[in-house]
Inverse folding.
């Protein structure tokens, strides 16, 4: 599977389209992964992109921990980028540090990982999945691996982890890397100075070099400590902003619900008023009809009264 940001050349595929589809797929909750994969593959096939459809169908469903790590990367791009930068700084600082310095960095590193791990659990919960303790540990292990190993960092940065990553044991325990460590499993160690008698410096020069190496280790430790403290501070600030944003969202939900209720009440009252208006219009029409009938009856009664009066006058004149 091609990494995010790459483009295939040739064929009938749309590089941007399949990349976007895979990016979406690997942030889709695992419970919906297979169904969504089929939907995206079918859509690509319907558009005539058979190669893209095959690439989507070849995607493997991630574990819950891997999905949470992918979701963290996509949902918090700035913090994820800073975390990757922190990893580079820590790997540089670990080279040549003694055990005490490594342990000091490890304490700060664990706090940063713990903060991001909780953030990943929160994002997963919002997406409908509660992470168990075991899964949470796998997420933390993945983040430790990202800090410890460039290859692991590159995998996570692609946003399409299928399974959790495992950090080297030296990085987890906070001990200095062993001299025989292999690439990708432990942090490299600075090469020891040559032990050849011919190349041995004078005692004073050896002491100067030793002092310079110690100063350089201290500078590396200071840079790594500063990077870790800055990362912790940014994480706390982001968490505070997230809490504020969640509170504002809750208030906005409440205002929306209240406004919706007022609209519902107003619509119900409007329906009632319209019904009253309809009834009043019907009554007005009926009253108008009755008024018309009464007016006509009055005209007839007046006509009859005039005719009766005229008849009375006629009869009275005969008698006289």
């Amino acid at each position: 599977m091609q990494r995010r940001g790459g483009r295939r050349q040739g064929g009938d595929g749309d590089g941007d389209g399949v990349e976007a589809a895979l990016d979406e797929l690997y942030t889709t909750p695992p419970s919906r992964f297979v169904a969504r994969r089929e939907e995206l593959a079918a859509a690509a096939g319907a558009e005539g992109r058979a190669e893209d459809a095959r690439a989507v169908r070849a995607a493997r469903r991630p574990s819950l921990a891997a999905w949470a790590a992918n979701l963290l990367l996509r949902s918090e791009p700035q913090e994820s980028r800073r975390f990757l930068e922190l990893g580079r700084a820590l790997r540089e600082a670990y080279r040549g540090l003694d055990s005490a310095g490594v342990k000091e960095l490890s304490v700060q590193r664990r706090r940063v990982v713990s903060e991001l791990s909780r953030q990943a659990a929160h994002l997963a919960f919002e997406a409908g999945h509660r992470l168990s303790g075991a899964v949470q540990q796998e997420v933390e292990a993945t983040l430790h691996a990202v800090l410890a190993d460039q290859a692991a960092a590159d995998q996570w940065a692609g946003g399409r982890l299928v399974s959790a990553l495992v950090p080297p044991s030296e990085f987890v325990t906070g001990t200095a890397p062993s001299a025989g460590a292999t690439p990708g499993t432990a942090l490299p160690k600075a090469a020891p100075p040559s032990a050849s008698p011919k190349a041995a410096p004078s005692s004073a020069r050896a002491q100067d070099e030793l002092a310079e190496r110690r100063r350089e280790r201290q500078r590396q430790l200071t840079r790594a400590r500063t990077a870790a403290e800055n990362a912790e501070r940014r994480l706390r600030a982001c968490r505070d902003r997230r809490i504020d944003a969640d509170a504002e969202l809750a208030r906005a939900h409440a205002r929306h619900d209240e406004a919706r209720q007022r609209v519902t009440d107003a619509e119900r009252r409007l329906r009632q008023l319209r019904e009253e208006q309809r009834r009043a219009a019907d009554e007005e029409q009926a009253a108008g009809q009755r008024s018309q009938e009464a007016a006509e009856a009055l005209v007839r009664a007046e006509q009859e009264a005039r005719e009766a009066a005229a008849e009375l006058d006629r009869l009275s004149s005969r008698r006289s």
